[in-house]
Design goal:
The complex is a heterodimer. Helix content of chain A is about 0%, strand content about 50%. Chain A has strands spanning about 5, 10-15, 20-25, 30-40, 40-50, 55, 65, 75-80, 85-95, 105, 110. In chain A, strand 5 and strand 6 (about 55) form a beta hairpin. Chain B has no helices and eleven strands. Chain B has strands at about 5, 10-15, 20-25, 30-35, 45-50, 55-60, 60-65, 70-75, 85-90, 100, 105-110. In chain B, strands 2, 4, 5, 9, 10 and 11 form a six-stranded mixed beta sheet that branches. In chain B, strands 1-3-8-7-6 form a five-stranded antiparallel beta sheet, with no helix packed on it. The chains are: A mainly beta, B mainly beta. At the A-B interface, strand 5, strand 9 and strand 10 of A face strand 4, strand 5 and strand 10 of B.
Chain lengths: ~110, ~110
Amino acid sequence: DGGITQSPKYLFRKEGQNVTLSCEQNLNHDAMYWYRQDPGQGLRLIYYSQIVNDFQKGDIAEGYSVSREKKESFPLTVTSAQKNPTAFYLCASSPWTENEKLFFGSGTQLSVL
Amino acid sequence: SQQGEEDPQALSIQEGENATMNCSYKTSINNLQWYRQNSGRGLVHLILIRSNEREKHSGRLRVTLDTSKKSSSLLITASRAADTASYFCATDAGSYIPTFGRGTSLIVHP
C-alpha cells in the first residue's frame, strides 16, 4: 500500500490495557497522520506530525498518544482512557507541501475483548 | 464536525452505467481530493483538484469543482464491477490537513 506498513492487521484489547499500533513508511515523507474510521462516520483525525519530535492533536485525540522519534515511524498508543476503542485505524503519510495526496497503510482493526 | 459530506450515502447501479457522487463542503479550500476504499483496506488516492480548477479527468474519472457552490462531483463512466468500493472526498479547509467526509458506498452489479 504505497510504502506504508501498518501492523498488526487485527488487534484485541482487554479492558484497562494500553495497546500500540505500528506505522512505518519508507517514502521519505515528512508528514504522518492517524485516522480513526467507524462505520457510517468516515475518517476522523486523531493526531498528525509534520516533523520528527513534533506532533499535533486532531479532532479526537483524547485517549490516544503518539510519538515521532524517527521520520519513518509514527506509532499510536490507544490508552485505557479511550472507552470506545473498537474501530479501524488508518495511518497515512504525505510530503507536507501544499496540494499533496496522502498515502495510506492497509489499516489495523482494533477490537475489545 | 466533518468539512465535506458526500451524497448519496449509497449508490447501486448496473455495469456499464455511469456513477455520479457529490461532495459539499463548508469553508474555503485550497484543494479537494477524491479517494477510493475497498472493503477492509486503506484508501487510495484518485484525483486532486485545486481551488482554481473547474474540471479534471483521469481515465474514466471526471471531477468537477464549483467553489461558488462549495461542491464537487465525481463521475465514473462505463462503470465496472471492480469499481465497487467506497468513495471519499477530502478537503483541507485552508490548513492542508485533509478532512474526510462519510463517503459514498458504490455497488456495481455485473
